[in-house]
Automatic annotation (TrEMBL):
Pfam families recorded: M20_dimer (PF07687), Peptidase_M20 (PF01546)
PANTHER family linked to this entry: IAA-AMINO ACID HYDROLASE ILR1-LIKE 1, PEPTIDASE M20 FAMILY MEMBER
Protein name: Peptidase M20 dimerisation domain-containing protein
Originating organism: Liquidambar formosana (Formosan gum)
CDD domains named among the record's database cross-references: M20_IAA_Hyd
Gene3D superfamilies hit by this protein: 3.30.70.360, Zn peptidases
Length: 473
């Protein structure tokens, strides 16, 4: 369903191709290019700007600074903290984020931001700006984890066995914060910011489903972030190129013949076979992979019999594998299958393997676009100071933002939230995980700045022609 803003003045712009399936939304968003870039900058910068200086570094640098100032104002901080705590109290698992999604839509309604819903079950896609190109997407994930919160505080999870232990409650809040900052200046935006509220990042491949639903059609670039418990507040970290590994899961059932544990000769022991399989799987990385090509194979699940004196009929093992190149990833799939079936048969067992045990897709490598890395360094450097922009090593963790970054140029970064004076923050996925809410204005301002500055700096040449700008003046 589409939702339309009220009271936005329509211009005579032709419908945009992005919304061509629904010209009503094109009309409702048709603020057109009748507002010049100079005016946009005039709003953000207190002093008047001449047409020759509107792209000067000083002027551009002021945009993120002004966004952060605004994001730190008490009314915005209080609003964001309230949203974050409400979401934290009501955690929902992947594709079940109905209450979270409703909260997002309610806030977008209040801001007169049109959106599309549902996308991939619970996803919401909002639009701010002209409805025309360029289109810049900002993404937040909405899902919680199936675990019990152990932090005792006023806004503890009200749902037993579910917790926002990865900070996605903060991610949603920061994107809503950015929406507010951008919507307050929507008449000045020369293009469209696409707000992507995505379900099921932790499990289920929500990003892939959003992508298949067409959320990135005609979108030029996409940005995403994750809070980081072990990096200082006011800092960000990322890198150009590969950032997170590709990830897959596997589950194998190794079948033999059960029987009395004291009479092994009458059995075909799957526990023994599975143990050998696990040992052999360790050789894939240590003996077959290039030591300089980072890979992981971990068996994390081993379920066998239930009695001390009974050899079971079968054992189920499962785990995950990671790699940074497609070749290595495909090679691991092939070899994991060969090793499990081959080693099981050495012990007279049979094995069946499922590479999608929960029905979810393989997650590709997260690759940061190199040009966007420069853009990120510029914008975040002006917002936080260049000394607070940290370069990080790639990590073996996976992030389904990679589906987006595989489809169009994307950029993903960590946003620190640890303070010097504070006790060590527990890491993500810990039942003691907490969010330092001081991080919320930083995230909102970074999202808004990355998008707004991109619109200013990467306008199609035609809209930057001097003549057309002067006409508007
Ligand atoms: Zn997580
Ligand atoms: Zn997360």
């Amino acid at each position: 369903m589409y939702k339309y803003p009220n009271g936005i003045e329509h211009s005579s712009c032709p419908p945009n191709s992005y919304f061509s399936d629904d010209t009503r939304i094109a009309k409702s968003m048709g603020l057109c290019k009748c507002v010049s870039l100079i005016f946009f900058l005039h709003i953000f910068v207190p002093t008047p700007i001449s047409s020759t200086s509107f792209l000067s570094p000083e002027v551009l640098a002021q945009i993120p600074v002004n966004f952060l100032d605004r994001a730190n104002k008490p009314d915005l901080v209080d609003w964001m903290v309230g949203i974050r705590r409400t979401i934290h109290e009501n955690p929902e698992l992947g594709f079940e984020e109905f209450v979270t999604s409703k909260l997002i839509r309610t806030e977008l309604d209040k801001m007169n931001i049109p959106y599309k819903y549902p996308v991939a079950v619970t996803g919401v896609v909002g639009f701010i700006g002209t409805g025309g190109p360029p289109f810049i997407a900002l993404r937040a994930d909405m899902d919680a984890l199936a675990m019990q919160e152990r932090v005792e505080w006023e806004h503890k999870s009200k749902v037993p066995g579910k917790m926002h232990a990865c900070g996605h409650d903060a991610h949603v809040t920061m994107l809503l914060g950015a929406a507010k900052l951008l919507q307050e200046n929507h008449h000045e935006l020369q293009g469209t910011i696409v707000l992507v509220f995505q379900p099921a990042e932790e499990e289920g491949g929500g990003a892939k489903k959003m992508l298949e639903a067409g959320v990135l059609e005609n979108v030029d670039v996409i940005f995403g972030l994750h809070v980081s418990a072990d990096r200082p507040i006011g800092t960000v970290a990322s890198r150009p190129g590969p950032l997170f590994a590709a990830s897959g899961f596997f589950e194998a059932v190794i079948s033999g013949k059960g029987g009395h544990a004291a009479i092994p000769q009458d059995t075909v022991d799957p526990v023994f076979a599975a143990s050998n399989v696990i040992i052999s799987l360790q050789h894939l990385v240590s003996r077959e992979a290039d030591p300089l090509d980072a890979q992981v194979v971990t068996v994390a699940k081993f379920q066998g019999g239930g009695a001390f004196n009974v050899i079971p009929d079968s054992v189920t093992i499962g785990g995950t594998f990671r790699a940074f190149s497609k070749e290595s990833f495909v090679q691991l799939i092939q070899r994991i299958e060969e090793v499990i079936t081959g080693q099981a048969s050495v012990q007279r067992c049979n094995a069946t393997i499922d590479f999608h045990p929960s029905g979810e897709p393989f997650v590709p490598v997260t690759i940061n676009n190199k040009d966007l890395h420069k853009h990120f360094q510029n914008v975040a450097g002006e917002l936080l100071g260049t000394q607070n922009i940290k370069e990080m090593q790639p990590e073996m963790g996976a992030e389904d933002f990679s589906f987006f970054a595989e489809a169009i140029p994307g950029y993903y970064f960590y946003l620190g939230m640890k303070t010097e004076t504070q006790e060590k923050l527990e890491s993500e996925h810990s039942p003691y995980f907490t969010v330092n809410e001081d991080v919320l204005p930083y995230g909102a301002a970074l999202h808004a700045s990355l998008a707004a500055r991109y619109l200013v700096e990467y306008q199609p040449k035609s809209t930057l022609l001097k003549g057309s700008l002067h006409e508007e003046l």
